[in-house]
Amino acid sequence: MTPSDTLRPSTSSGRISLMVSDVDGTLVDKQKAVTPATVAAVRRLREAGVPFVAVSARPPRGMKILVEALGLDLFGGFNGGSILRGDFSIVEQHFVARDAAATGIAVMAERGASIWVFADNEWYLTDPDSQYVAGEIRTVAFQPTVVREFGDHIARAGKIVGSSSDFAMLEACEADLQPMLGSGATVKRSQAKYLDLTPPGTDKGHAVRQFARHFGVPLDEVAVIGDMHNDLPMFATAGLAIAMGNAAPEVKAQADFVTTANDEDGVAHAIERFVLPRAAGKG
Asked: In DSSP terms, which residues pair with 241 in a beta bridge?
């Protein structure tokens, strides 16, 4: 796919001083690896004076290989519910409200989803044989802890996931749960197969604002890139929004530009074509 021309009027000032990337479906390929082309493009971006950071639905622990490969100084996990430095020291950390966690778990389980709880730097589940566990192990690069019940872990949950191959059920559940949970959790699908409950008041837009504050960059000088619905808060916050070639149609519709797919070095293409020409105020 050839990168597209502008899809919507950009709110960028014309200068890009910070780039923020989603991870799965964006920064990594289908094998969950960062390609040499992406590593090289991020290096060129930094040499041009533009910091590069990442935010993901993944738990922070599941971003270790990525942080090391790209030398990230700052990153976000749990859709922005946790912000950490490159040495994994915590800048800020939030949790799903306990009552919201309990309600969300009950509703998703009743509708047939397998439940995962990420808390206390661990991944807890009750069914190790559920459909997407093996793939998630490959993604986050650590093993889950099997429990009979989630107990007090839900009081410290950075993320709760309902996983299912019934994508329509998860979509409907997303619409139903947010009004039910109110200010107790943010409810977003990170992939068609995953419905995430993350800390209230935090999403990837929140992460972009925190990153911009850290680097002293105006929001209209931030470029963001992603592929899924949980990336749309970034698109609404930043000055320049780039969708991956493999992005959902609704995500592409909200972008300024569309780059190539994640298996076609989409982030590297976006940096070279859309971001580097705008570094240091170039038009």
From this structure: 224
Angle between helices 98-110 and 167-181 (to 10 degrees): 150
Q: What is the dihedral of CA 190, 196, 199, 205, to 10 degrees?
A: 20
pTM: 0.89
- Kindly give the pairing relationship between strand 222-226 and strand 240-243: parallel
pLDDT of 141-188, one tens digit each?
999 999 999 999 999 999 999 999 999 999 999 999 999 999 999 999
SS3 label, residue 278: helix
Q: From CA 173, how far away is CA 175, in angstroms rounded?
A: 5
What are 188's strand-pairing partners? 196
Measured at the CA of 102, the angle between CA 100 and CA 104, to 5 degrees, comes to: 65
Between CA 117 and CA 196 the distance in angstroms is 10
Query: Identity (one letter) of the amino acid at 31?
Result: Q
Nearest to 35 by CA among 70, 2, 59: 70
State the distance between the two ends of the chain, measured CA to CA, in whole angstroms. 24
Give the largest Cα separation in the chain, rounded.
Answer: 57
Cβ–Cβ contacts within 10 Å for residue 31, how many? 8
Residue 242: strand pairing partners: 225, 257
